[in-house]
Amino acid sequence: MRPPAVILLLAVALAACRTAPRSTPEARRYLVTASPIDTGVMSQRLCVAVDAGDSHGVWWWEPGYAGCSGRSTGPDVFRAKSGNVVTAGASAPVEVGFRLQLHTAAGSGLPAFVDVRLTIENGAFRAAASGDTVATVRRADLELPEQPPNR
I want to staple 56 with a disulfide (CB 3.0 to 4.6 A). Which of 83, 92, 105, 116 is the partner? Predict the structure, then answer.
């Protein structure tokens, strides 16, 4: 075999064995509801994002006409009040909790907030109060376009 052919063959073999570059954890750091979830604590379905590497990393928004890939609230997604993320290991469920403020009149006797509890396991979010389950998607950021709601 001639030297240039050997070099070409070696280059092709190395290219074929090369693995695809891995994305960094930051590239897809957010676990997001693929569609709005019924939290069981209010009538409006919500979209939720979680950063499992941040013990307070929870955000929410009301979906736009395209679902959770857009938002009808804003100007941005909302960082959840009292966000709590508990992870026990790579294969264990992620427990998520946050407080959602309600629009109630003072002195009405109605609560000013509700507690939302979710579990992320096997590629799905599950709401504790309703049992509703929706798939997860990963996102690199939470910069979502504002859209009118789908009503």
Answer: 83
Could you give the C-alpha distances from 145 to 37, 45, 63, 101, 149, in angstroms and in order? 19, 18, 10, 23, 12
Write b or e for each residue in 123-144: b if 16 or more Cβ atoms lie within 10 A of its Cβ, otherwise e.
eebbbbeeebebebbebeebeb
Q: Where do runs of H (alpha helix) occur along 56-151? A: none
Note whether 65 and 150 are within 8 A (CB).
yes
Q: Length of the chain in residues, anyone?
A: 151
Walk along the chain (151 residues) and give the pLDDT tens digit of each residue: 555 444 433 333 333 333 333 334 455 799 999 999 999 988 889 999 999 999 999 999 999 998 999 999 989 999 999 999 999 877 889 999 999 987 765 566 667 789 999 999 999 999 999 999 999 999 999 999 998 887 6
CA pair distance 102, 116, nearest whole angstrom? 12
Helix, strand, coil % (nearest 5) of the chain?
15, 40, 50
Spatial separation of the C-alpha atoms in residues 82 and 93, rounded to whole Å:
20
Cα distance between residue 109 and residue 140, in whole Å: 41
